[in-house]
Amino acid sequence: MQTNWVVLIIAFSYLALLFVIAAWGDRRAEQGRSLVNSPTIYALSIAVYCTAWTFYGSVGRAATTGLSFLLIYLGPTLAMLCGWLVLRKMVRIARSQRITSIADFISARYGKSSGLGMLVALIAVVAIMPYIALQLKAITVSYGVLTEYPNLSPPDLSLSDFWNDKAFWVALVLAVFIILFGTRHLDASERHEGMVTAIAFESLVKLFAFIAVGVFTCFVLYPSPATLLSQAGALLPEMERHFGLDQIPGGPLGWFGTLVLAALAFITLPRQFQVLVVENVNEQHLRRACWLFPLYLLLINLFVIPIALAGLLGLPGTGEPDSFVLTLPLAAGLEALPLLVFIGGLSAATSMMIVETIALSTMVSNQLVMPLLLRWRRLHLEESHDLSGWLLGIRRIAIIAILILGYLYHALIGEAYSLVTIGLVSFAAAAQFAPALLLGLYWRGASRNGAAAGLVAGILVWAWTLLIPGFALSGWMQTDFIERGPMGLEWLKPYALFGLEGWDIYTHALFWSMLANLGLLIGVSLFSRQSHMEQTQAALFTNALKPEAEMAAIWQGHASRYELFRLVQRYLGKAATQRLLGPAPTGDQIDSAATPAMLAAAEQGLTGALGSATARILINSVVRGEALDMASILSILDTTSQTLEYNRRLEQKSDELARIGTELKGANDRLRELDRLKDEFLAMVSHELRTPLTSIRAFAEILNDSEDMAPEQRQHFLTIIVRESERLSRLIEEILDMARLESGRMTLSPQRCDLSQLGHQAVEAVTQLFEQRQVQLDVELPDTPCPVIADPDRLQQVLINLLDNASKFADPETPQVLLRLQQHKHKFSVSVEDNGPGIDEAEREKVFEKFHQIEHQQQGQQVAAQRPKGTGLGLPISRGIINQLGGRLWVAEPEVLGGACLRLSLPQALEEDQEVSS
Amino acid sequence: MPEVLVVDDEPNILLSLEFLMQQAGYKVVTAPDAEQAAVLIAGHCPDLVLLDISLPGMSGFDLLEQLRQQPDTQKLPVIMLTAHGREVEKEKGLALGANDYITKPFSTRDLVSRVDALLNTPT
Amino acid sequence: MKAPLQSRLVALSLLALALFSPPLLLLFDRPAAWGFSSLPVSIYLIWALVILLAALTLERPDAD
């Protein structure tokens, strides 16, 4: 036995620890290193399913009704096995629709009906309140047992001294905790990472505590499980009947009924929906949770039967079966283990209260209060820009109200029910959400009216068959209606509706409520029309997992043929539209309705281009032709912007393609041009080669054929042959030079040389030629050395070529040519100028084209025709050589003589180059 | 004695053609370009023209076209000479009404026999 | 087939439902050596087996 203070300090320290853990979880989430982003944490948070009811009540149930306690865990095991199919769909929907609670989910599924949301929220609050009270009761009872043992007087539950009731203070602390970690901020997803972390931690604590008791029972209290079992078999009365199906209330049918009830409630309890769906951060986490959570259930139930048996064997020292977990170690005189058990029970109770209160308060604020406030014009809320403050305030008030109501419930009528009873009544109420929720996931036809009718009928049947008789049995009202039916109507007896007797009350209630619920949901849905919004949402929900699903069946609505055409044409273009839908409508066809086949074809076409979601929404837009709500518009915008992004990328790509196409075309044109130029070049080369060859051959043949020729004439002809041969060789040499330059195989041997000296040498070489042509040559060369790095032979060739050209183009009357060498900073430039007609601005680059001269002449310049012919390769070759030497050759402005001026510049050779070359 | 007009801008070729024609027994006039040739044709009325295609200024083709348009030179025999060995040019020349087409470098005997053939003079 | 995983899970769920439901459970509901029904032991074993199968199915690296 512990003193009050030790227990209190430990209990509140544990709660303080929860604060720390939750704060840590929130901090980590803010830092982006989320703790809850783990499938194991997710699975552990789902274990909020195991409340104080599990922790204390399972043993109690095992002791009184045998295996029926297991059904509460086998049901969720079954539900989790389909979790990957069903829960994943819910998770995905909740994410895309930003669902905050089960009320929100059901309301969203049925066309965002606020009425339905209110209904669900109301049912949830009414049904779950006792469940919260149950947790408080468990805390009070366990505290009482722990501190009063072995005096097992029932705890005093009355309002008169609530400040002495520890449960009241626990509720208060929890209210603070929930307000801190459940309403810190409003994010769209309504996730509470800190809270989830704390819940996962609590799941570990309760599992550890329970297994500790189990191990103590099986291996300390009794030397082995086998000993315990054989003792129980020998000592306990009627043991042969224990743990069989007969012991289950309602027998095999009751077994099955409770199994289904637990499976449904596991999904539809607000707190389970909260942790399973709303708090899920990654749907892949379901993969592990689907087997890890059942494993958790298995582990926490492993020792239930041994503890129950040991408790029964230990009577009367172990007191009530619901307290066996605590009284067993207490009876053995242990100190620490009972405390651990108390903490385990506390964690089970608080985790449930925390999550349930958050889920309920969210529902109350979002589904009940806010819609009403928004309708209440006098508050002018619709004009307010920031409602989050309101929302948080309402939620905080709701939290406190829910916990206080729970406490009142616990204080006023908590004594009447055993733990298990309250739990199953809540289960049966929560299960009423299942038809609307699950059928809505798979049957598109389920309508809002059907869901509402089903829910109302189901909950009324539930109230009549479970809740009201429960109240009556608690002594709050007369119980004769249970025995004889209200006003003597036997067929309305709550535990034997329509004379259905012999079933356990839960299976009975589940059967009738589900019959009414499902029957009305299906029946009303079949005979009521869905609004357009409902149809949209139904389609979005039922197809959440199969985005590529064939949707032809949905388009039963009315759509104008013209609008459909316009829509498809806008996205696919005219040709594709006509291929899909046939010829465009004309005349009175414009107003006629599109056939379902046309709609299906249009959707298929759009799906191919834009993806199914967008296509569906687009078709929707013409089929319905009415305004969509904000969320739908947002989702359209979402997909549209994705499509736009996609289109933008496509456009980029096609721009790129077009650009590449242009480039390719350009490259092709260049290639063609090069090909043409090559052909031209070959033609010119051939022409140039043929010309001297023609003279040579002609004169050679003449000489060969005419023996009686005058010797002078023979000599003349021979001279011509020799000169033309020389011309031919020079030409061939130049063509080869040109080819070498162009292919980059021209080998120069650059060395340090004196440009001035090369100039003198070039002048010497051409002096005779100039004298022949009577061209006056002026030379301005500096006396100082002008060092450049060049191939002297080639450079001289260039200079001679320039001088030769100048002499050809100088003024025919008084031909003049000027050779000038100048230094500009670190460059030397050589200019060769003549007094001829000069070169037009436009022609200045063309003179460096191969065989330019020929075209030049063909264009009819009489003057040039008189000139001695060059090959047309001299300037291109000169430029190639100078370029390769690192200089430039260009046509410059004439400075002195006013004719053509060709100038080359070469960089000055640096001093150190001397050593390099020497 | 038939008169032959030789048109070529290359002096050595012109010289060789002049010699060949004289040796073959024709009277020869020469022109270095098409314009002078046109003047000579109008003045001398030659019996045959040896016409180079690549001429400075007006080309051999231009001159041929001009000759074929005038009634008195419409039938004047013209042999095109060219250093371009391209088929297209040959076809173009023949289409424009050239009587024959000789590619440079040519065989002197072949040239003379073609001229003889056109002037109907047995060799 | 879209996903063998889904088919396997459906099959496993049906198997578990059948195993956890009365007609089959009645087979195990007979007194054992220690004096009462062997049903609890059978259920725990079936439970563990179902969890093992689920874990093997879901944690397969090649699952969809």
TrEMBL record, chain A:
Superkingdom, natural source: Bacteria
Enzyme Commission code: 2.7.13.3
Pfam families with a match to the protein in the record: HATPase_c, HisKA, SSF
Histidine kinase domain span: 684-910
Catalysed reactions, semicolon-separated: ATP + protein L-histidine = ADP + protein N-phospho-L-histidine
Keywords attached to this entry: Coiled coil, Kinase, Membrane, Phosphoprotein, Transferase, Transmembrane, Transmembrane helix, Two-component regulatory system
PROSITE patterns per record: HIS_KIN, NA_SOLUT_SYMP_3
Residues passing through the membrane, by range: 6-24, 36-56, 68-87, 119-146, 166-183, 204-222, 253-270, 291-316, 390-410, 416-443, 455-477, 505-527
A Gene Ontology term for the protein's cellular component: membrane
GO molecular function, one term: transmembrane transporter activity
Extent of the signal sequence: none
Bilayer topology term: Multi-pass membrane protein
Enzyme class: transferase
Entry coiled-coil feature ranges: 650-677
Subcellular location(s) of the protein: Membrane
PANTHER family according to UniProt: HISTIDINE KINASE 1, TWO-COMPONENT HISTIDINE KINASE
Family according to the record: Belongs to the sodium:solute symporter (SSF) (TC 2.A.21) family.
Designated name of the protein: histidine kinase
Automatic annotation (TrEMBL), chain B:
Residue ranges of every copy of the Response regulatory domain listed in the record: 3-119
Pfam families given in the database record: Response_reg
PANTHER family referenced in this protein's UniProt entry, alphabetically: REGULATOR OF RPOS, TWO-COMPONENT RESPONSE REGULATOR ORR33
This protein's UniProt keywords: DNA-binding, Phosphoprotein, Transcription, Transcription regulation, Two-component regulatory system
Signal peptide as annotated in the record: none
Gene3D superfamilies: 3.40.50.2300
Descriptive protein name: Response regulator receiver protein
UniProtKB/TrEMBL annotation, chain C:
Domain of life: Bacteria
Organism: Marinobacterium stanieri
Entry annotated with the keyword Transmembrane helix: yes
Annotated protein name in UniProt: Uncharacterized protein
The keyword Membrane is assigned to this record: yes
Keywords, sorted A to Z: Membrane, Transmembrane, Transmembrane helix
Transmembrane segments: 37-58
